[in-house]
Amino acid sequence: MNAASGTPPISSRYLWYALALLAFGNLLNYLDRNIILALFEPIKDELDVTDTQLGWLGSSFAIAFALGALATGVLSDLRSRRAVIAGGMALWSGFTALGGLTGTYWQLFVTRGVVGVAESSYLPSAQALLADYFPDRGRAQAMGIFWSGLAVGGVLAVWVGGHLATAFGWRTALVVVGLPGLLFALLLGRLRDPRPKRLMSVGRPARRIAITPRLIFRAGLPLLVSILVGAMVFGFLVLVRGLPAAADTAVFGGIVGLGLVWTIVKWVRIAMRRRQELLDGVPADAVDEMLDAAAIVLRTPTLIWLFIGGALTTAAMNSLVAWSASYLQRVLDLSLVEAGRQIGLVGLVGGVLGSWIGGRVGDRLMEWTPSGRVIASAAGFLAGAPMCVVLLLVNDVRLFAVLFFVVVFFFTWYNGPVAAVLFDVVPRGIGATVMGAYVFFIHIAGDAIALPVVGFLSDRYGLRIALMTLPAVGLMGGALLLLAVPTVGRDMARVRKPAVA
Fold first, then answer.
1. Buried (b) or exposed (e) across 339-372, using 16+ Cβ within 10 A?
2. Arithmetic mean of pLDDT, 425-448
3. CB under 8 Å, gap of 24 or more: what pairs does 278-282 form?
C-alpha cells in the first residue's frame, strides 16, 4: 500500500471506514439471505409445503451460492473487486424483493437461487479486500468485525421479518428488506482497492493443462447422470403410496448429492495432475486461476482441515439459525413476533461479541504461536456444542434466550480467525479464488445438505430431535479444525518465504 507497489498510501481512518462499509454490506448479505428462514411458518401455511420443502428452499440458495462462489472468486482476482461486490449486491437485493411477488413455491425457489448466485460475489471479494487492507497485524480482528454482519443480519432477519410478516405479510417483508441494498451498492462501488497494479497486469504464459469440451463433459458427467437417475427415481416414488412425507424429494437430493461429490472428486483428480510449482504473476485466464486454487488447496494441509471442519461448523451454525424461529413457535408455543423478540436482541449481541472476541483472541494467541487463530476457531465450537445440547432440552423461554446468547456467542468465534488463517496460508494474488473455493465447499458439503436433512428428520421425528444432531456436527467440526494446529506454521512459512527472498 505504497507508491512503490503501484497504489497510493491508505490512511488508518480510511481502513476503518472501509471495514465498517464492508461489515454493513455483510449485514445486508445475511439479512437478505436469512429473511426467508424467518418466514418459514407463514410460507408453509400459505403455500402448503412440508418441512423438507422448506429445507430445500434454504438449500436452493446454498447450492446456488456455493456454485457461484467459484466463479465470482476467480472474477475477483482477475477483474475489479469493487465492481463484483457492487454488482452482486444490486442483483441479490432486487431478487430478494422480487421473491415477494412470486405466486408459487417453485417461483420462490428460483428467486432464492438467483439471490444465492448474486450473494456469492460478496464474501470472496470483500474478504480479499480486507486481507489487503490488513495484511498482517489485526487481520483476525478485522475479519471478526466483518463477520459480525453474519450475526447482526441473521438475527435482524428473524426480528424484522417477524414484525413485518405479522403486520403486512411475508411478501411485503421480502420487498422491504430487499430494496435498501440497491442504494448501498453505489457506496461499495466507490471503495478504493489496495491491490498493487502489478498483480492485476502481469500475466502468465499459457496454462499447462488443456481444458477441452470433452474434458469438461467427462468431468461433469457424474452430476448429469445423477440428476437423470434422481429424476427417474423421484417419478417412481411419487406413484408409491404409504411413503413418509417428502421421501421422494429426500431421495432425489441424496442421489444428486452423490453425483455432485463424484464430480468434485473428478475435478480434484484433474488438479492433482498439476504438480509443477505455480509461476509468478496472475493466471492467464479463469480456468488457469481455478486450477491454481485447487492445486494450492490440495497441497496445503491447513486448508484441507479448514475446508472439512468449516463445512461441519457451517452446517451446525446455519441450521440452528435457520430453524430457531420455527423451533420457538412449534416447541415453546410462541408467535412469530414473540420468537423474534426472544432471540433477536440476545442473538444480535451474542453474535457481535462472539465475532469480535473470537478475532481478538485469535490475534492475541497468534502473538504466542502460529496456530493461535486455528485454536481460537476450534475453541468456540468445542465450548458451544455442549451448551447447544442444553439449549435444545429446556422448556423455559427465558432460559432458552440466555442459552441462545451463549451458543451464538461461542459458535461465531470461528468466523474471523478462519478467514484470517485462509489468507495467511494462500499467496496474495489468488486469495479471492481460494476463498471462493472455500465458500463453495462449506456450503455444498455443509448447510446445502444439513437444511433439507433437518427438515426431513423433523417431518419424521419432530423438530427438537432433528436439531439435536447439530451439536454433534459442530463438535466434530471444531475437533477437525484442531488438526490444522501442527500444519499452519509450516504453511504460513512456505507462503512468506518468496517475499523474504
1. bbbbbbebbbbbbbbbbbbbbbbbbebbeeebbb
2. 76
3. 278/427, 279/204, 279/205, 280/202, 280/204, 281/202, 281/203, 281/204, 281/429, 282/77, 282/78, 282/199, 282/200, 282/201, 282/202, 282/203, 282/204, 282/429
Q: Which of 24, 25, 131 is nearest to 433 (CA)?
A: 131
Which of 114, 488, 78 minimizes the C-alpha distance to 290? 78
pLDDT tens digits, 354-403: 888 888 888 888 888 888 888 998 999 999 999 999 999 999 888 998 99
Kindly give, in sequence order, each residue whose CB lies less than 8 Å from that of residue 475, ignoring residues fewer than 6 positions away.
Answer: 381, 382, 385, 386
Domain ranges of the chain: 9-191+210-500
Residue 262: partners with Cβ closer than 8 Å, 6 or more residues away: 222, 223, 226
pLDDT surpasses 60 at 286:
no
The residue to which cell 435498501 is assigned: 180
- Report phi then psi at 246, rounded to 5: 60, 25
According to CATH, the superfamily of the domain at 9-191+210-500 is MFS general substrate transporter like domains (1.20.1250.20)
Cα separation of 138 and 360, whole Å?
8
Q: Where do the DSSP E strands lie in 219-349?
A: none
Supply φ then ψ for residue 46, to 5 degrees.
Answer: -75, -40
Element counts in the chain: helices (H) and strands (E): 23, 0
CB 287, CB 421: distance < 8 Å: no
pLDDT digits (tens, 9 = 90+) for 246-277: 566 667 666 776 776 666 656 555 554 544 44
**Which residue reads 509461476 in cell numbers?**
279
C-alpha cell at 370: 502460529
Pairwise CA distance, residues 497 & 494, whole Å: 5
The whole-angstrom separation of Cα 76 and Cα 81 is 5
Average pLDDT score over residue span 407-436: 81
Half-sphere exposure of 375 (CA within 13 A, CB side): 16
Residue 405 to residue 382: CA distance in whole angstroms: 16
